[in-house]
Amino acid sequence: MKELSGVINAVVAEVNGLSLSEQKAIVEKNWPETQKKHEVEEKKLSPLPNADKYKLITTRFSPNPDCVLHLGSARAIVLSHEYARMYNGKFILRFEDTDPKTKKPQLQFYDAIRQDLKWLGCKVDEEYIQSDRLEIYYEIVGRMVGDGNAYVCECSPEEFRNKTLAKDACPCRNIPPAEQLERWHKMLSGGYQEGQAVVRVKTELDHPNPAIRDWPALRIIDTKKYPHPRVGSKYFLWPLYNLAAGVDDHLMGMTHIIRGKEHYTNMVRQKYMYQHLGWEYPEAIHYGRLKITGAALSKSKIVAGIKEGAFADFDDPRLGTFSALKKRGITPEAIKKMIIEVGTKPNDVTLSWENLYSHNRKVLDASSNRYFFVAEPAELRVVGLPKAFQAKLPHHPEHSERGFREYAVTPSGDEKAVSLWIAQKDAQAMEQGQTIRLMELFNIQIQNKTETGVTAAFASESYTDVRKIKVQLIQWIPKGSEYPTEVVQQDASVTEGYSEVACKKLKPDDIIQFERYGFVRVDEVGEKLIAYYAQK
RNA sequence: GCUCCGGUAGUAUAGUCCGGUCAAGUAUGCCGGCCUUUCGAGUCGGCGACCCGGGUCCGAAUCCCGGCCGGAGCACCA
To answer: Is the CB of A513 under 7 A from strand B?
Structure first.
């Protein structure tokens, strides 16, 4: 056994001694058949139930425009959109803005939601707004009332509740359709005030779940008092969720409904309506809630926090809104991959940021150019430079074709000295006598450390000299060519520092990596560079 | 309380329908080696899980029963 492990270790050491490309070349030459397997298999969505039953797979995302979108909605959006694409189907955006009173929509959010979807890369094939479709719901209700499948109920909520809890019909239920139609016309013409009547869809009265029994489909809202942001006071009869969503899902040809499990009983309710109307209910998938550790994801908390001033705006980095994630440099690709990985299970999931970051890092590591940034700058004075140096810093360690930036480091004075900025954190970690390498420049030996900075002596130029002894490599910025920079952290605090002058050429929305610091998204390039911290 | 769901490593997921190939796969995380002018990436190795108790069976993560834990719904909200 010992002999064997000795041999194994020797072989492993030998292979590890080769560069990656050498290793690849050997494998390709000797065992070409193994290469295919190395392609990382992307996690895919499981097939949709009964997909072959439908000729055009149609899904939808149907938000209430009463807030911006956030990570909590990501499951509905990404899954619905991805499935539509996977089957060459259709993805519909439907605004469910039928509550002008308690979940009042706001005009600004219709467009904010469209923007969020666009950013996510979820292309909408068709868009509908329910507040434009009220007449359609009235027509369906009229049909159901006439058929005796729905009725106008004048009972108070309490009265009705007592009856159904006992599995009894309320007094309105058995009134013949002709008379019900009269009530319905009275309702349509404004003969009832808010709260005086409601339309109910008939179900089995003895359904085991009392919440299903004769559910309400349409109610009256005093829109003089509570005008709708889009249609004002034009309508006073507003459909409830199950009427509006149920009717639209059929009329819009929905084949697969993907929504949170809080809607499970709504499916049961709507199936009664579908039966009354002779429609076939689509396939429904109910997934669980998605949380992310530490982020405020509930609409009410987001809205309240902004109102109270706890958060600056909807894109405050502490929030889980898409606009905040965007501002922080989280890519839509990372979000999509994460959601696809999580899939459609009905379990609640609590994602950790690490999970999102790892997906994001894969995207960012390849795309982001590298720059130097020193947080909370300290001065480093190096004496005894034998000559002037020209540092050539690659924009990306694996992509030399992206070019370089160059900085001159020229000694001056009797001491042949030069002053540089380094990060406070690095300065503090230094000890007298220690050798440090300034990346792509030269090696120094620390002489003296004070409150205000560090003095060091030029040691040598060659990197290979110090590589073996694994000295600390740090980033630096020539004094006099610094670019004042603020990095907004994830908790909205601000870190001051200097980035290199090359950063002046960056543009807003560029995502870069500050070496040994982390990925940041460029927000403003002006007198100062303002960047948002994304992740390590 | 009532009506539904669900419980696989720190997190997420595969496997559960149709019991054996699962002493449980993958990703991420953590630890270590190698590589690398970033504390990044890459690469190699390691750590770590079937909620509990019964039953059926030659055999259970998978089927049955009971318990425990978690979630959702019980609005004239969506």
So the answer is: yes
Is the predicted ipTM greater than 0.95, yes or no? no
Say which DSSP state A400 is in. G
Estimate in Å the CA A59 to C1' B72 gap, whole number: 23
Residue-range domains of chain A with CATH? 43-367 (3.40.50.620), 369-536 (2.40.240.100)
Reference A477, options A423, A531, A430, A521; nearest CA is A423
Tell me how far apart the alpha carbons of residues A502 and A372 are, in angstroms, rounded to a whole number: 9
Residue A77 amino acid letter: I
Q: What's the pTM?
A: 0.89
Q: Which residues contact A484 (CB under 8 A, 6 or more apart)?
A: A496, A498, A527, A528, A529
A283, amino acid identity: E
Contact A286, A261 (CB under 8 A): yes
Per-residue pLDDT band for A45 (boundaries 50, 70, 90) equals confident
The whole-angstrom separation of Cα A536 and Cα A441 is 24
How many Å apart are A167 CA and B74 C1'? 15
Nucleotides in chain B with any atom closer than 7 Å to protein CB: 2-8, 10-15, 27-29, 33-44, 70-78
For chain A, the residue count is: 536
